[in-house]
Amino acid sequence: MAFDANLVFHDGTAITADITPTSATRTSGSAVLSIPGGTPAKGLAVVLVVGNDLAEASDTLQVTIEECATVDGTYVEVARFPLLTKGTGMPGSYVRRFDSNKEFIRAKIDITDADAGSDFTVASVHILLAYHPFILL
Prior knowledge:
Layout: E1 8-11, E2 33-34, E3 44-50, E4 60-68, E5 76-80, E6 84-85, E7 92-98, E8 104-112, E9 125-130
């Protein structure tokens, strides 16, 4: 992995179904991240990089950032990226800032395979935690 695993929500593994991480152990390319004490005063940034477009016009990709006090508890949304469809901003990158006083943060990935053909796939999706003072202004 080219990045520090402690800063990677999703590592570029092809997405073929919804991904809702529930552990710090990486599964299907995703993991819950631990930020003891929560975010700094100005929060943290999350960067979503999508390297490939979706295959079909009605397929969708939605990424939300969620927080929780325990790794396997009930998560609450703290940030949402735009809903992506074929031809809308992919390939591309997006940045969202969030504040949290919880220890555990995850990226929940929801997909819609519009034709229900179990043929949804998108590769080269990276979701990274970032701290950079220029992003947080």
